[in-house]
Automatic annotation (TrEMBL):
The lineage of its organism: Bacteria, Pseudomonadati, Pseudomonadota, Alphaproteobacteria, Sphingomonadales. Pfam families: Peptidase_M23 (PF01551). The keyword Membrane does not apply. This is M23 family metallopeptidase. Its EC number is 3.4.24.-. The keyword Hydrolase applies. GO terms for molecular function: hydrolase activity. PANTHER family: L-ALA--D-GLU ENDOPEPTIDASE, PEPTIDASE-RELATED. InterPro entries: Cell_wall_metabolism_enzyme, Dup_hybrid_motif, M23ase_b-sheet_dom. It comes from the Bacteria. Keywords: Hydrolase, Signal. It comes from Sphingosinicella xenopeptidilytica. Residues 254-349 form the M23ase beta-sheet core domain.
Length: 380
C-alpha cells in the first residue's frame, strides 16, 4: 500500500529543491539592516495566487472563445487579454530578476571583496513601468523593493560620511584628498557617461551608491602611500624637525627630519608600502641610508644605518625590515635620522608618526561599507 506520508515527504522535497529559501538584505531606518527570508512556503503561496489568477484569466478567455456568439469586438478583447497576460508574466519575471540583481550588488558591496568592474557588472538597471494589473501580483515584493532602495541610500550616506572622515585626517597631515584619488575608469569625475558605461541607464539610488563607494575605495586604498608606521619600535626621541643647534658647527641649522636614538642594530622598518629608489652609503652626511618612494608624491628617508637589508628596485611592504640602526655618516651616536618628503620637499614627520594608528585603520577598512543592524527572523 502506498504510504501517503512518504509521498507527501517526497513532494515537499521536490518543491523545496525547485523553490529554495532565499535571503535578501533589508534595511529599516529605526533598527538598521535586517535579513529578509523568502521561504519555500511563501514562494508556493505566491505562485499559487499567481496560478489562480492566470487560471481564472485562462478560463474566462476559453469561455469567451468557446461561445459561438462572440462578435468582433469580443475577439479584440480576447486578444487584448492575452497580451495583458503575457505582459504580466514578463513583468513578474523582470521584477524578480531585478530584486535578485540588487541583492547581489548590495551583498558584494557590503562584503568589501568586490572591485569596481564586478560592481559595475551587477549595476541594477532602471526598471520599466509595471504592466497594468501587475500591482496585485507583485505586492509581496513591493516591501522588499522599498527596503532595498532604503538600504542603498543608507549605504551611500555611510560611504560619504567615512569619505569625509578620511579626508579630514588627510588634511590634518597637510595633504589634500585629491592627491590619492586616481581617475575612475567609469568617468565619475564628470557628468558625461558613455553608452557602454555601467552607470548608463542604472537605477539612480544604486548609481549614487556606486559612485560614493568607488570614491571612498580609491581614497582609502590611496592612503597606503601615507607613512603610517613608526620606523623603529624602541627609541628615544632626541631631536625634532626645524631650526636647532648643530652639534658639529655650534651654529643654528635647519634639521629636516627627526632623530630617534636607540641601540646599534635596532631593526628599522618601512613606514609604508613602496619601492626602494636608493640604498647606499651617502656622501652628503646620511651615512648608510635608504630612500623609499610610496607613490602619490610621498617619499621617506632613513639615515645613519649600521646596515642595509634592501637594494634599489625592491618592492617593500609596510613594516618590512630594511636595515639596522647605527651611527654612520655625520652622526654623534647611534640613532635613526628619519625624513618624510612631499613632492620633493622635506616636511615635519611628527604628524605622520602621531597619526599612524588612525591612518592604518582607514587603510585596513578600504573597500568595506558597514551598515550594521540586527537580523530579523521571518516565519514559515
Amino acid at each position: 500500500m502506498l504510504d501517503i506520508n512518504t509521498v507527501a515527504s517526497g513532494l515537499r522535497d521536490k518543491v523545496a529543491k525547485r523553490l529554495p529559501e532565499r535571503e535578501f538584505l533589508h534595511y529599516k531606518r529605526d533598527v538598521g539592516m535586517q535579513v529578509y527570508r523568502l521561504t519555500t512556503r511563501a514562494q508556493v503561496i505566491g505562485l499559487t495566487g499567481l496560478a489562480a489568477l492566470l487560471t481564472y484569466t485562462a478560463v474566462a478567455t476559453s469561455a469567451m472563445i468557446g461561445s459561438s456568439t462572440i462578435e468582433a469586438s469580443a475577439e479584440n478583447e480576447v486578444t487584448a487579454m492575452r497580451a495583458e497576460l503575457a505582459a504580466l508574466r514578463q513583468g513578474v519575471a523582470k521584477t524578480t530578476a531585478r530584486v535578485e540583481q540588487r541583492q547581489q550588488f548590495l551583498a558584494q558591496l557590503v562584503s568589501g571583496k568586490a572591485d569596481p568592474s564586478q560592481l559595475g557588472a551587477l549595476m541594477p538597471a532602471l526598471a520599466a513601468p509595471a504592466a497594468a494589473g501587475a500591482s496585485a501580483v507583485l505586492k509581496p515584493l513591493a516591501e522588499l523593493d522599498r527596503a532595498q532602495l532604503a538600504l542603498a541610500d543608507h549605504a551611500r550616506t555611510a560611504a560619504e560620511a567615512r569619505f569625509e572622515k578620511s579626508s579630514a585626517l588627510i588634511r590634518r597631515l597637510g595633504l589634500q584628498p585629491a592627491r590619492f584619488l586616481k581617475q575612475s575608469t567609469f568617468g565619475m569625475g564628470g557628468p558625461e557617461e558613455k553608452a557602454d558605461s555601467p552607470l548608463a541607464g542604472a537605477e539612480p539610488q544604486f548609481k549614487a551608491l556606486f559612485v560614493s563607494w568607488q570614491k571612498l575605495d580609491l581614497l582609502e586604498k590611496g592612503m597606503s602611500a601615507i607613512p603610517s608606521l613608526k620606523p623603529v619600535k624602541a627609541y628615544t626621541y632626541t631631536s625634532g624637525y626645524g631650526v636647532r643647534y648643530d652639534p658639529f658647527t655650534g651654529d643654528t641649522a635647519m634639521h629636516k627630519g627627526v632623530d630617534l636614538a636607540g641601540p646599534v642594530g635596532e631593526p628599522i622598518h618601512a613606514a609604508a608600502d613602496g619601492v626602494v629608489i636608493d640604498a647606499r652609503y651617502h656622501p652628503g652626511g646620511y651615512g648608510k641610508y635608504v630612500e623609499i618612494d610610496h607613490g602619490a608624491g610621498i617619499v621617506t628617508r632613513y639615515g645613519h644605518m649600521s646596515r642595509i637589508d634592501v637594494k634599489k628596485g625592491d618592492r617593500i611592504a609596510r613594516g618590512e625590515q630594511i636595515g639596522g640602526m647605527g651611527s654612520t655618516g655625520r652622526s654623534t651616536g647611534s640613532h635613526l635620522h628619519y625624513e618624510v618628503l612631499i613632492d620633493g620637499s622635506q616636511v615635519n614627520p611628527m604628524p605622520f608618526l602621531e597619526a599612524g594608528d588612525r591612518v592604518l585603520a582607514a587603510q585596513q577598512s578600504a573597500g568595506t561599507i558597514a551598515v550594521g543592524g540586527p537580523v530579523e527572523p521571518t516565519g514559515n
